[in-house]
Amino acid sequence: MAAGAAAGCAWDPTVSLRLGHPALVLLERCRGAGPFRAILAHLLRLGLAFETFPMSRLLHFATAASSPRLTREADLLFRHFTPRPNLYIYNLMLSASAAAAAGDSTTSSPRRAVALYMSMLASSVHPDERTFLALLRSVERLSAGRQVHAHVVTSGFHSRAYLRNSLIKMYLDAGDVETAELMFRSTPVPDTVSFNIMLSGYVNEGCTAKALRFFCDAALRGIGVDHYTAVALLTCCGRLKDTLLGRSVHGVVIRRVDRGDWGLILMNALLDMYAKCGEMDAAMRVFGEADEKDGISWNTMVAGFVNAGKLDLACKYFFEAPSRDLVSWNALLAGFARYRDFSAVIKLFDDMLASRVNPDKVTAVTLISAAATNGSLNHGRSIHGWVVKGFGLQDAFLASALVDMYCKCGNVKGGHSVFEKALYRDVTLWTAMISGLAFNGHGTEALDLYWKMQAEDVTPNGVTLLAVLSACSHAGLLDEGCRIFDAMKQRYNIEPGIEHFGCMVDLFARSGRLTDALALARRMPMRPSRSIWGSILNASLACQNTEVAEIASEELLHLDPAEEGGYVLLSNLYAAGGHWNHSDKVRQNMERKGVRKSVGASNFES
């Protein structure tokens, strides 16, 4: 032990680092909680634990261990047996608090870090760079991060590169991109690390286009490219599904990053980019050339082939993988569900359970969606029972999927039962129930549920309003539909999309107000779709309004000149009104343009 410590003085790390006492030597060699507690008891009996240097070694061991119990013991030692903590001890405790905050969703760890820092300042112990780095790892709110930043500036550490980069990352993680950009621009000489932090921050915030512009600007300034840069750029290319840009980044990686520095993360980023772009041949080449593969590599290939619709190759990679985890099982299940092979979904799920892989909520949603698509109510009920047994009634998203399944199977009563029993109802669950009622022709009940949702202060989203407008359209509730459509922008600040306009056009057309339907279609901010003109045409045929039918038919033929439906409907309309010359002209126009009427067919088998 240091001589100063033996004399009862605080240990000075700049003077002595000697560990002469046998108990301290044992502590440095200690492995495990049991021996640590024995050495702690021995040091307490000798009275050495109350000295600063021995206590710093005890706290170092306890905070470095991954055991939560030892971390709590370190806290007890600090609070009750460390009367004169120095900067090193404070930093140890702050680092431990930061590590606890990273793995704990409660606010106790960040508050503990703040309390430690305030105690440190009250004890006239001046912080250093490590202090602020630990504090930044502890903060959860942007306001607290700004206060740490202010203390960094007033303490004179704002020019430290590592600390500055940590502050930039803190702002990006908090979503304050503007402040992060200001800090980056004020950096005297930006390095590759700060550049990569900004680039990754843009990618994580979904600012893909900004990330690419930032990379181009940085490249012109001569900032180098490493594997961190490449991973961020490949993520951008995958999100944009830009194969050409992805291949360009791949070329940059080959030219500028040594093959030995690629690593598994970069290889998986390449695989993910090609898979998201649908370039599975390129992904297979990268996969085949990889020196090392992990579960992520195999899962990327399985998911890529699933998205490409190549379930045979997805199964091949799935079964060839050294091990199969929950992600790979869910990816293949989703593939079979997407392509409506319900029997394969059930068989694969049985194999999953036989392999002792515990399903999660993603598995549950896949199974529920498969039952809904298949219209298999009996299987849906079985899956419902399994979901309740495994996950209870707390999850609103699972409840939404169950409501959707029951309503698509025609069992609105079953869907409403799930809705009523749900412990928590978010906007998704309300929307699922409203959509289910509208889908099954219960427009009035759907509208009543919408008003009830409003009464419970649940704010609708665009999907909710689309479901309500659809319900109004099918139930002929014109006044209510107009009121809801007007409220979209005025009350909820939601811009109506083409689907919302389509519902309103259909509502006007079904109500016989063809002139209003035509006027709304013409003043839409986007180009009306075929379905919008088709609803006007069908309504005008029902009302035998030849003038509006001609306009709608012309718009349909303009959108798709090769589509026979518009010609046939218009010809039939003229014929029904006795305008045989017009009807013959439409048929002749079809023949001149090479449009053929499809031969009628029946789904019934003899």
TrEMBL record:
Keywords: Repeat, Transit peptide. Pfam families: E_motif, PPR, PPR_2. PPR repeats lie at residues 191-225, 325-359, 426-460. Signal peptide: none annotated. This is Pentatricopeptide repeat-containing protein. It comes from Urochloa decumbens.
